[in-house]
């Protein structure tokens, strides 16, 4: 029972961190959580330790737990790792993708362009995630799949507490999606597909890093 309660507490905390209810820096007070959800303090402590190990919260002795605040450097490290992991996962998945999978991915690109025209960045983000999940979905390496998924989840949180895309980068990224699909559809070799998928993420990293530096310079001058 205690274990199931800890899992329940973990699920509550993680979902509220992910949906933004508990934003970066939010204090997670065990007594308050216990009262709100009718779960004793021990499961909350277990859940917080698990979230700390996964990198979602910071626990400071005598100060309690807070939702972790991610900075630009954290985003860059995550993006560099994701570029390599996702590049490999896409290359391994490519030979197993069906024509129906490719068609579905292309339709996602159409909808992403429509979302950008409507200035719907939330919908764009959902579709972008679905696209990358699809092109990686037929990778036959379970451990690699776990690593990619973990970094996607971490990236979702970092984006929510930082920024989305640099101006113009979103549309460029959709064009690159089409290019990756063209390579897969043409039966290109694994190294070529892996490089294209990796470079796609690296270009996003470079564009946002440059934009963030420009904003910092403007604030410094301003």
From TrEMBL:
Pfam families listed in its UniProt record: FCD, GntR
Record has DNA-binding as a keyword: yes
Gene Ontology molecular function: DNA binding; DNA-binding transcription factor activity
Domain HTH gntR-type, chain residue ranges per copy: 3-70
Keyword list, A-Z: DNA-binding, Transcription, Transcription regulation
Transmembrane segments: none
Keyword Signal (UniProt): no
Signal peptide: none
The protein's name in its UniProt record: Transcriptional regulator, GntR family
Source lineage: Bacteria, Bacillati, Actinomycetota, Actinomycetes, Micrococcales
């Amino acid at each position: 029972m205690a274990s199931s309660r800890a899992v329940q507490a973990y699920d509550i905390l993680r979902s509220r961190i992910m949906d933004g209810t508990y934003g970066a820096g939010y204090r997670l007070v065990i007594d308050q959580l216990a009262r709100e959800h009718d779960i004793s303090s021990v499961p909350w402590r277990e859940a917080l330790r698990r979230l700390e190990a996964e990198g979602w919260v910071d626990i400071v002795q005598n100060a309690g737990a807070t939702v972790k605040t991610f900075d630009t450097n954290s985003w860059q490290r995550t993006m560099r790792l994701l570029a390599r992991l996702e590049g490999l996962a896409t290359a391994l998945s490519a030979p197993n993708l069906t024509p129906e999978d490719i068609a579905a991915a292309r339709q996602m690109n159409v909808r992403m362009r429509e979302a950008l025209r409507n200035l719907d960045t939330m919908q764009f983000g959902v579709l972008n995630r679905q696209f990358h999940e699809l092109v990686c979905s037929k990778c036959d390496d379970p451990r690699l799949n776990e690593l990619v998924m973990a970094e996607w989840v971490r990236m979702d949180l970092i984006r929510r507490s930082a920024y989305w895309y640099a101006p113009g980068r979103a549309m460029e990224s959709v064009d690159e999606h089409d290019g990756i699909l063209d390579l897969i559809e043409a039966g290109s070799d694994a190294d070529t597909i892996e490089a294209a998928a990796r470079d796609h993420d690296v270009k996003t990293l470079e564009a946002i890093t440059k934009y963030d530096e420009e904003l910092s310079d403007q604030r410094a001058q301003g």
